[in-house]
Specification:
The chain has a domain of 45 residues. Helix content is 74%, strand content 0%. It is built from two helices and no strands. The longest helix has 30 residues. The chain is elongated and about 60 Å long. The two termini are 16 Å apart.
């Protein structure tokens, strides 16, 4: 890269990545307060609500590395 050439960070791929990240966090923060209300409405005890929230968090943490590695697993080197 030369001193006169300027590579912009705001490429189409970067903007799409930012949008996808935002939507991923948004869905998590929308579900976090509504799941306990819904499960309680179905008649679950506070213990079951706690189990549901713990399983939601645990599965999110376990699947995040697998989902992140998915697109790059079959990517061709440039």
């Amino acid at each position: 890269m030369t001193a006169t050439q300027s590579d912009s960070l705001w490429t189409r791929a970067f903007v799409m990545l930012c949008i996808v990240q935002f939507l991923g966090y948004a869905q998590h923060f929308v579900l976090q307060p509504t799941i306990p209300i819904y499960v309680t409405h179905l008649g679950a005890s506070p213990f079951v609500v706690g189990l549901m929230m713990a399983s939601f968090a645990a599965i999110s943490m376990l699947l995040r590395p697998l989902v992140a590695a998915g697109p790059s697993a079959g990517a061709r080197p440039e």
